[in-house]
Structures are given as C-alpha cells and as structure tokens.
Fold each of these.
Amino acid sequence: MRTVVKVVFSRSILGIFALVVGNFLAAADAKKMDLKVGDPTPVFTAVDDQGQPWKSAEHIGKKYLVVYFYPGDFTPGCITQAQRFRDGMNRLTEKGVEVVGVSGDSIKVHQLFKKAQQLNFTLLSDEDGSLAKLFGVPVGKGGEVKAKDADGQPVMVKRNVTAARWTFVIGKDGKIAFKNTNVTPAQDSKQVTDFIEKLEKK
C-alpha cells in the first residue's frame, strides 16, 4: 500500500513539475515574441513574390526597412494600404527606405495582386504564419476572397492563415525603431514617412 502511495505521489510531483516548467517556457517564448521598440530585429528568410529567397540579413542595416503585415491580398483595406505605399514609394526611396509587405498568401496570389495593383515593392509569402509569429503578430485562420486579376478576370483567392495588420520600421542599426499595432490602411504609408522624416532630423 505504501509503495502504491509513493508511486502516485511521485507521479503527481512530476506532473506538477512538468506543468510549471511548461508554463515557464511558454511565458519565455511569449516574452521573446513581444518585440518592442529598441529590440534587435529577428533574422529571417522568406520567399518573395518572384519565388526567390529573401534574406533579412541582406537588407537590414543598409536602409530603413518597413515590414508591414496585412490580412490578405485583394481585400479592401489591404488594397488601400498597398496603393498608399505604392503611391508614396518615390518619397520613401529618396529617404533610403525599403518596403516589404507580408501576408499568408501564396507566391502565385502575390504575383496576381502585385500586377493588378501595379505595386513597386516586394511582397513576402508567409503561408504558415511563421514569420508573423516571429514578429509577435497575431495569426488567425485563413479565408477566401473573390477578386479580379489585372485583366479583369475573376479569381478565387484562398489563404491558410490571416495575420493582423501590424507595421514595423527597422532602423539602420538593425533594431525596431517603430511599431504600430493599430494600423489604419489609408494612413500607414504617411505615418511611416512622417516617422522617418522626424528620425532623420534628430
């Protein structure tokens, strides 16, 4: 009887210990994912809209880098946000800024979206949401959108995950300089431009 009691007790202790350790590790991961202004930017590799590897190490530190996460191609708010960055790209380029948009859409869908909206910046594919999670961006379930391509032909767009609309500006020192978790699509490009202009005056 004593032996049984000891075994049950030991298992209980191990279970509690495992739970505590698990919670500790989960809290540590959550903390690590919570990027703040001044934190080093995570190093990552993604696939761009041309199907080529896009390595952050080849871009960070050379220019200001804007990484904006958005829910999905061909959705109203995302179209507006992309158009504003497109229209303001000359001004941003003059200030040494590179822009990349990130969503859960596939490379093929990115190509259709980029052509339809005549975008002049890179889109990165994050089909499993891993890049969004690396930046601490909330990720939800996917969705479907009925849209039209550049030729006006109807297309059905599907994505596996949907990221929240968050924008980051990475400074030339490789650290997070700006973080916006409450993005207004029509104002995002302007807010980023205004921030960088103020940064340059310091």
Amino acid sequence: MTKQTQIRNVDLHFLATPDEAAQIRERMASIGMTSLGAYLRKMAIDGMIVQLDLSDVKDLVSLLRRCSNNLNQIARQANEIHSIYETDIEDLRRQYDTLWDSANKILSSLAKI
C-alpha cells in the first residue's frame, strides 16, 4: 500500500476547552485548511513546539535597568560637583544606548520565534 492509499483506522482522541477549540479553528482557517483532522494530523506530525529558556535575557534586562539607574546617579552627581567631563557622560550614554539596542534586537528576534 502506498502512503496515500493507507486506511486511517487508529483513533486518536483528546479533549479541549471551548477557547482552545476556537483557537485551533482560527489557526486552521488562517492557513486555509477546512479539515480539522487533516490540520491536527499535519500539526502533530510536522508542527513543532519551541520552548525557550529566557532566564538569561531576563537577567540581561535586569542588569540593563540597574546600569541605567547607576548611570543616572553618576550623571546627577557629576553635574552637582562638576568633577566629570560632559563628554564622558555622553560617551557613557552612547555606550548604554548601544547596549539597549543590542538587547532590543535580541528580544525582537526571540519574539519572532
């Protein structure tokens, strides 16, 4: 028997909430499929689940926030006692902005997965 002529006689069954069923039907409709069985079979065989450990990214964001607070404190103190050059502060801000840009690119890339 070829793959196309095989008889599907194994029953696979699962329960879903009404919200889950609606989401399944919405996704099915979004790709133009009308057969629930074909869609579920295709997703079960070819679909993939991506589970990401984002703890490192969360740590990065936390560090960036702390760095931001520290930078603001340094800038305030430097402005009060005039012991740091304005160009140094601007350099720190540029470096910090570059850091945030990199972090945002990482987060955007992860969001697309």
Amino acid sequence: MWLSIVIPTFNRSFTITRALDSLQKQTHQKFEVTIIDDGSTDATESVVQPYLAGNVKYVRTAHGGTPQAWNLGVKRSKYDHVFLMGDDVMLAPECLAALSSTAALVEDGLGAVAPRLIYTADPTEPYLGKKLSKYASLQASTGDIAGSFNVGGEDAMEVAILHGYSLVRKEAFFDVGGFDEKTYSGNYYREETDLWLRFRMKSYRLYYEPKARVYCQKSLMRGGQWSNVEGSLLAYEYYVLRNHSKFLRKFYGRKRLLMLPTFALRRLYTRLTETYDSED
C-alpha cells in the first residue's frame, strides 16, 4: 500500500528533522511526503532542504493555522491513504508498516487507524512511556478525553476516538469535510476530536493499532501552537477553554452549560499534575 504523509509545521526547525529522519528508517518505504510550512519565521525552510527529493515536497504558505495546513496537505496528496504526521514526533521503524497492514485488513468502512502515542521527555531515546490499561474515550460529563492513547496489545481494535497523528482514508476525510477551519483558533485545541466525531457521525470506523508506535516530546513549549500564543501559558489555557466551549456548543448544545465548568476544573487538575497522556 502506497501512503501519502502530510507534515504541517510552524517554527519547528529544531524538531522537524527528527521526524524526517524517522521516516527514512521506516521498514515500509512506499510513501510520499508533503511538508506544509505554515508561514514559519525560523530556519525551517533551510533545514528541510537536504531531505527534499522526488518523494519529499516542501510547500510554503501564509500562516493560516494547522486546520488549514492539514487540509491543504491532504488535498495535495497523491494516494488513497494519508498519514497525518506531526513535526514534533518520531516514528518507530515498524510504524507505517503496521498501520498500512491494519488499514488493508479493515478497508470496509474504514475511516482512520491510529498508532500508539507515547509521550517521552526525549524522543531520541524512545521508551514505552506511561502505559495505561484503559484506552481513551470521551467523558460524558466534560466532553474531554479520558484514558490513554498509550495502551499496549497485540491486536488492532475498533475504538470511538483517536489522536491526531493517524492514518486516514482520503475519501472519508473529504466526505466529512476535513478539519474545521472556522470554529477553532489560537492553539486549535479540539480540532482533532472534532474531526473524529464527524467520522463517526457518518459511520466510518476508527481503529487503534498498538503495534505501531509514535513518540512525542512532552512539555514542548517552543514552536508550533506556542508560537501562535507567543509562548504564553495563560493565553494557551485561554484558548483551551475557548475552543473546548466551541466544541461543546457544536456537538452537545445546551448540555455544554453543565459540562464546561466541570471540564475547567478537570483541566486545572490535569495541568497541576502534568498528565500528558490524555492531551488532545
């Protein structure tokens, strides 16, 4: 199976090369890569130059935010399955092979397949991270994600929610309208959850493949969405509350009036205890 890989990036010249290096080490090499530079003002354009070849393309756009960058990348993709890859992650060598194998097995009604997401202090020294036994789900009381995307196992399983770094079937992605470019802003919190709920509303099936592993650096407070809020933790948390409120209005209606205060308290607890496994 041939794959298209889309990597939106914004002021992450210090991490994107690690992501690209991990692609070169994949056991599955049937892919193209499109880097969407969302108006970076750092050295991103120069550091990616050594990687540009026939199957790796670089597209620079005016800064419009990650939802717009994701959609542009998928539109420019060549193949039927597109891996949405972060500029701050590293893939274990078997990651793409495991994802493509699962996608081929469950092609009927498939929407997307997510790898195991492992937060680590240093992605250059991968480890299995804080593994929880309960897979992620949406809390009825808050609309927030509880549980973990880092659950071990040998077999893929159908699930109700995914994280953002997933392999999507392009036809399904376009059928649900792609990422919402209008509702969210700032750090674009909940853009991914929004997408997966729309997949489910159209009866597309979501799968989790624990044999595919992605390593993400936790507490990364430079580049990316931090540049959008000028590195301000207060501004970042403001957009968490703002965007989650928009998300609740869109999917839960009046129930949001009870859900948002509960979410705010849980968010405060999460931030104080530095729980990263259930971040969106």
Amino acid sequence: MGQVAPYHLLGDATRPALILLAGPDYSRIREIISIAGIAFDMRPFSSDVDVDALKAEVAREGSAIVVFVSMPEVEGRLDRSAFDGRLVDLAYAADRVIYVGTTGAALVHPAADGIRQEVRNGNLVVIAALDVVAAP
C-alpha cells in the first residue's frame, strides 16, 4: 500500500508534545523513526524514565519528544508484564500515543470523534475509523 508516512500520526515536530510510540514490532518502530528523520527528538524507553522531567523538558524546549518502546506479544496479544508502572505513567502523560503493529500503525490517543468503546465478554472493544499507516 505504499511507503510509510508517519507525519500525520506523529504530528508537528515543532509543537510541544510528549509522544509515545509503542508496539510489538521493533523493526516497524525503527522504520517509522528513520522515515520521520531528525525533525523529532527520538528516545528509547528505559525503566528509569522520569515522566515529569520529560514533560518539563517538552514545556521548556517547546518541541516534541518521541519515546519509543517495543513490547512483547504472547499468542497475538501484548504481554501484560511489559506494562510496568513507568510505562503506564508515560502512556497517561503522553499527548499522543501511537500503536505500531506488524501491518501498520495507528493513533490511539487522543481519541478521534466518533470512537465508541464497548465491553464484550470481558474485553474492551474500540470501534473507530482509524487514520492508519499501512505496511510497505
């Protein structure tokens, strides 16, 4: 379906924002980062990340910081053990959250108009027309 164009997912690199880029396919994450180029301040997630310091840096510098993390899958689902407290804190603090799957990437936060959420058989189901980037 064409080449990956992450700009509409990442937003404007000159606008202050903390962006989380996460998913199970590390090679796709790296591909999106390399295509985005040097306009974005890209940083790998680490267990000692200071979310408050990142938010303060975004405000002080007035530009975007993208934190990326690869999370393992177990039987086609993200492994819950990957969601340690700091990653959850980062996800809640982020201005944008982008999920990078094996066949594409999608902006999951902020939620676009028209998104519905339902609980079905104990699972949260999100119904939306997503603005996605297809795999090349």
